[in-house]
Write a structure and sequence with these properties.
mainly alpha, elongated
Length: about 400
């Protein structure tokens, strides 16, 4: 029998695939053009207005690329715009946020031990927070502080650290780091949508009208593009972090996230310096290694356990109230608790996968959706069926879940 969860899982899978594909296209073109811009060199007999050029080889062919400081005297008919990669990355990411964290807020977004929130309140904070960063960042960029790139980057970093801490005070650890990534990605995509592309269109319009474009538009666009370049790698870390509880579920997860932003700077500084033919600052990898080691060390501190877990939410209580629940709890605790425990008994497992604990009936009720998908709809868990979960047991899990949700 196909139910709502079945189609939701496929919708999430399809949208995640689209998100990854568009992100690859956006990041690839962004990194390429930053490297290209840094590697341009003056060229003899170059046309008027050309600021630099580069020769490149790829796929068996040679490419001669020239950059105009402002724009060429005449616009070509086949001008290519790089914008849809950014737009679709954000749109697909936002849809993913809705499909996973909003439609299943009680499972992934809200953690009662962090903050008791109604579903509507959590969604409102989630949506509203994504706009705050862009508004504040854009205001700073357009102020006098924006004239100093170093000051601007420091202020942006402070904003990110504050948001990292703030998210961990509101959402579950998994949702906190994911939202920090979405927060940053929103700033990046908004840079493209509100600044970079509009500025380029102003230049094109001036050229078509026979006016000399103001070089400030290109300067501003380049500044925002450079910011995006340094933020890309940390965003990727945040988006992948939900698979690794040592990152999102540790006591100092917000500090780990803050250090990751610094690693993004050191790694990109190495490549940007190299592409600009200014040497290879190997020291940046030493700094990156130290920062990563700090993240590993911080993850070793386990969160302080609550003396008493928060009561089940009404949605969770529905699963616990069913007559079949004692049987389901016994199945899950006997087949899954060897890994999903505060102190896993399975060799090679030092922390419960995705920080999901299944040692008590209450924990089973809280994880009902994950159990249904991982062990009911599919055979993903237990991995390789190490604990020999049988077909009738999986069928019982499916029937229990569907009865609770009315399916």
């Amino acid at each position: 029998m196909l139910d709502y969860t079945f189609f939701l899982e496929w919708a999430q899978f399809g949208m995640r695939w689209l998100h990854v594909v568009t992100a690859i296209a956006w990041i690839g073109s962004s990194f390429y053009f930053i490297a290209l811009d840094l590697g341009l060199r003056p060229e003899k007999d170059a046309p008027a207005g050309v600021n630099g050029a580069a020769w490149q080889v790829h796929g068996g062919g040679f490419y001669h690329i020239q950059k105009y400081m402002v724009a060429p005297a005449r616009m070509p008919d086949d001008l290519t715009w790089f914008k849809w990669e950014s737009y679709m990355t954000w749109v697909s990411g936002f849809v993913m946020l809705v499909l996973l964290y909003w439609t299943q807020a009680q499972f992934y977004l809200i953690d009662p031990t962090v903050l008791e929130l109604p579903v509507w309140g959590a969604i409102l904070i989630s949506a509203g927070s994504l706009t705050i960063g862009w508004i504040l960042y854009d205001a700073i960029c357009k102020s006098k502080l924006g004239d100093n790139n170093t000051t601007l980057m420091v202020l942006l970093y402070v904003i990110l650290v504050v948001m990292a801490w703030g998210y961990t005070q509101v959402f579950s650890g998994r949702a906190a780091l994911l939202h920090l990534g979405a927060f940053t990605a929103t700033v990046m995509s908004a840079n493209v949508f509100f600044i970079i592309i509009p500025n380029q269109k102003i230049v094109v319009a001036d050229l078509k009208a026979g006016r000399t474009p103001d070089p400030k538009y290109g300067k501003i666009a380049k500044q925002r593009s450079t910011h995006n370049n340094y933020l890309t790698l940390p965003v990727l870390f945040m988006m992948l972090s939900n698979h690794y509880p040592l990152a999102f579920a540790s006591e100092y997860n917000w500090i780990i996230a803050s250090l990751v932003f610094l690693m993004g700077v050191t790694i990109r500084h190495f490549f940007n310096t190299h592409h600009a033919h200014k040497g290879m600052p190997w020291w940046t990898w030493g700094v990156t290694a130290v920062l990563f080691a700090l993240c590993v060390w911080l993850s070793s501190f386990h969160p302080v356990e609550e003396e008493e877990q928060a009561a089940l939410t009404p949605a969770e209580q529905r699963f616990a109230d069913l007559e079949s629940f004692p049987e389901i709890a016994d199945i899950v605790m006997s087949r899954c608790a060897m890994c999903h425990a505060k102190e896993p008994a399975m060799d090679g497992i030092t922390r419960a996968p995705k920080d999901v604990h299944l040692e008590t009936p209450e924990e089973v009720a809280r994880a009902a959706h994950q159990i249904y998908v991982q062990a009911g709809l599919t055979h993903a868990m237990p991995p390789a069926n190490l604990s020999y979960m049988e077909g009738p047991e999986r069928a019982a899990i499916r029937a229990w879940y569907r009865q609770a949700v009315g399916g």
